[in-house]
Structure prediction request, 256 residues.
Amino acid sequence: MAVGVTPPVVLSVAGTDSSGGAGIAADLTTFAALGAYGTVAVTAVTAQNTTGVQQVYPLPAEFVAQQLDSVLNDLPVAAVKTGMLADPKIIAIVGNYAAAGKLPNLVIDPVMVSSTGDSLLDHGAENLYLELLEHSTTTTPNRWEAQMLCNAGGLHSFEALGELCGGCLVITGESTGIDRVFHNKNKTLLQGQEIDTSNDHGTGCTFSAAIASNLAHRVEPLEAIIKAKEFVRERIMDSANWNIGNGRGPVSHVLA
Ligand code: PXL
Prediction:
């Protein structure tokens, strides 16, 4: 067997999902599938399954900071993605690290609600996200999250939100399978097809983790987004007929 080359390191700042489909589990498997080495700073532990979120236990913000220090002080992190940040103090901590330039190629998935409709962010914390977005390379809200961010910031259009973001803004799922990207005052529509499945638990996490992996491999942001969208489409197709749990099942991350 040939000796391997060192993979780029990606950091996931996100919550756990006991059902294994979203959050840290989705991120680490996606990083592995795309040839990146995954590290984590856990923000919250959730008790959930495919039918819903039963309980959320945010970790102390200082402990999230300690995990960030432990990873960043040793490993050569090439890209970072944030998922569920759970509470305002954790968003503020991540914002401080981003402002200090410690979070390279930052992909922000502004997680607010789960695919089952359960809240994953303290109410009122949306406006703290707006400061964090200035430091992002790519931000990946779905259209409801994009609307909540606009409402929190008194922004009257998705274009205005795009201008506030540091890099690309991708608004996912605006209509069947189509995503809209705002970048440098340009707008690009990414076409897609609707896939007939209820197995979509964790697709948002997989998408942002794939973008971060591609950025870590030095792919340019727009291309990183396009490739990630194709990756997610393939993964959803692969698990479209899986039967795991009674609710919205997970997507396949690594099996081909
Ligand atoms: O898909 C959003 C998300 C992110 N992070 C965690 C989650 C979920 C959805 O369930 O559980 C931990």
Remarks:
- The pocket of PXL is lined by residues 14-17, 22-23, 46, 48, 83-84, 111, 114, 120, 202, 204-205 (CB under 6 Å).
- The longest strand covers residues 168-175.
- The beta strands are 9-14, 37-42, 44-49, 52-58, 77-82, 106-108, 138-139, 168-175, 178-183, 186-190.
